[in-house]
Amino acid sequence: MTVLSTHPHTVDxxxxxxxxxxxxxxxxxxxxxxxxNASGLSGSKGKVRLIVQERYLExxxxxxxxxxxxxxxxxxxxxxxxxxxxxxxxxxxGLNDVAVGAAxxxxxGQIVAVADTGVDSSHPAFSGGRILATFxxxxxxxxxxxxxxxxxxxxxxxxxxxxxxxxxIQGTAPEARLVMQSVGDAEGGxxxxxxxxxxxFEQAYGQGAxxxxxxxxxxxxxxxxxxxxxxxxxxxxxxxxxxxxxxxxNDGVDINRDxxxxxxxIGSQAAAKNCxxxxxxxxxxxxxxxxYGYERFVTDSGQLKFGTNPIRFDRLANNPEGMAxxxxxxxxxxxxxxxxxxxxxxxxxxxxxxxxxxTLPFGDSADPAWMYDAGTSMATPLVSxxxxxxxxxxxxxxxxxxxxxxxxPSAALVKAVLINGAVELxxxxxxxEAGLAPDYSSGWGRVHLxxxxxxxxxxxxxxxxxxxxxxxxxxxxxxVPVTQTRAMLKVTxxxxxxxxxxxxxxxxxxxxxxxxxxxxxxxxxxxxNVEQVVWTDIPQGRASVSTAARNLTHGPQSYAVAxxxxx
Length: 567
Description:
The chain is 16% helix and 27% strand. It is an alpha/beta fold. Helix 4 (149-158) runs parallel beside helix 7, helix 5 (197-206) runs parallel beside helix 6 and helix 7 (376-396) packs across helix 8.
């Protein structure tokens, strides 16, 4: 039983999952102990949220059905070149798409939900009736965007329009449709986020959204796996085809002034095991002169976050191989590998709400309908669009093990395909601030959508698999032909784990060929529900890829595998 020692504050009173009392009885008991009016409270079988004075916390804690009392902290926003970087075409402008055969994959048929400050639905980026639904959760009857963050984010997912000077700006899924959940409140906060995140996801899921993008997180960094992370993991566990993405946060800082960004800033929602957590790498906008030593990047005490070279005088968007210094680093407090992947998050040009005026901190666009912004907020929607494209590819080519009519790809498979296609972020400093996967700065690497889509097309050199559920001690193996000399085989295993701060169900990935074998995440594979083997210079022959259920606390366990052989 844990009890807060804070001043009067908003808290979640979390009930034991095995309790057998009705919700009204529990809410009345909590209200009585907290000396508040029960008529103003709403609860669920899992918890009730209320404002309570510190002197009454102990009385609430004494209720038999109460498992824990957790502080409810405020949330904050984590806010044509980037698109091409993600598609593997490098730091170039112009339009490029990924394709399966003759079919260009632009998110057709996919619905992406975005929970953010709102959206300027009149912006040409969203023309053609592609806004499917809007929900005013923060301001009664209003889903417009006075803050501008939500419009920019939505543009990065699926925007598609021309600037005044004829430049076409597109998101990564420019033909997908949008469900906007406007959570911005009248005070400029995010008061529309429901007390239980399951309600947020359920609303979007009911509209047909199977990708959910969240460019916000806890105002306090580096918190452990709490109730919000648990609610994310619960929802994906119960709705295994819902892909949920969260920004890692913008709390990167070099406190000890050693010229390297400190680790262990990721927590709260971004620490959930079953979501995809996004860090920010740099885009390529060398004309933007802003540097990391800029006064915007300061600590609460007013000190520069990046006061030492090589970071201080480095520009934010001049090297696509570099990490953004502000991007929160992992691991989580539970030592999960986070972020999962990274994507460009500096110098991102996207839609500007017509309600946003004045000079902007990250650079002005020649066309006032568009603006630059930076943050893991910007990386997250770009990858949300990529996730929609991966889902589209999987629906066009259902993988081995696909079940259901109609088939709906699991979140675990989308994540496995996304991670398996990611490429090493080399870094821009010496020593590198990124490196070989898995890395606590760049996770499993920078997203490469074309490489990911290749694993959905089922060839001799690449493929993916939806694994049937394994019982404890069970295993499944298949073989991969290696016909090239000096080839590399990359295999990624992902599973949707049972909710909880630690790894609940432990699967094991092994790749064998002849007398040699490789295990996933050597030294780290007892804390993560993502495992990967990268075998360079693998011998020719038939490699056996095995997934085994090593220790299940809640079984059976389903899983997903993606793999590719490259020269």
